[in-house]
Structures are given as structure tokens and as C-alpha cells.
């Protein structure tokens, strides 16, 4: 199977869209309206830049990407933009699941 041009980019974009649609159309947790969520994402982003930057630096990479499977946009410290999309989707999906569980538990207690 050849994913040239979309091998990493398309799933990264799809993950963000799916997570946002699940919140908007299914879960309705209100997570995106909370300042604490966005502060959490800033903290995650800071650590992601440190760790991902170390792992993907072009002068001594630990993680290699097929250049045909990414857009080629890298910032800061050579981090592929797709990593930020996957990071957003992953952390948001976990927080949405956690929030949904807390909301259901609160309803059971009432």
C-alpha cells in the first residue's frame, strides 16, 4: 500500500477533525469552552516541543519520517507539523473521554 503524500498528513488531519466532530455531535462535554483545557494544551505543547524537538532534530534524528509522507513543514526544532496535529487529537480525545466519564458518574450520584 502506497500512501505517498498522505501517509502521515491525512491521518493527522483526520484525527483532529474526528475528535472535534465527536465532541460537537456526540459528547457535548463543553471542554473546548473551558480556559483550563486551553491552558492544559499550552502545557502539553511546551513539553511536546521539548521532547519531539529532541527526537526529530534533523542534525541527529532519533525518529525518522519518510519525506514523501509528510508535508515537509517543520517548526520549531525540525518538528513535523503533523506531530502537533496528532498530539492535539490524542490529548483531546483522552480528556474528552475523561470528562464524559466524570459527567456520567455525576449523573449516577444524583
From TrEMBL:
Sequence ranges assigned to domain Lycopene cyclase in this UniProt record: 13-96
Protein's membrane topology: Multi-pass membrane protein
Localization terms from the record: Membrane
Predominant place of localization: membrane
Coiled-coil positions: none
Keywords: Carotenoid biosynthesis, Isomerase, Membrane, Transmembrane, Transmembrane helix
Organism domain of life: Bacteria
Pfam families (alphabetical): Lycopene_cyc
Entry annotated with the keyword Membrane: yes
Transmembrane portions of the chain: 6-27, 36-55, 84-102
InterPro entries with a match to the protein in the record: Lycopene_cyclase_dom
Pathway in which the depicted protein is active: Carotenoid biosynthesis
Protein's name according to its UniProt entry: Lycopene cyclase domain-containing protein
The organism of origin for this protein: Nocardia suismassiliense
Lineage of source species: Bacteria, Bacillati, Actinomycetota, Actinomycetes, Mycobacteriales
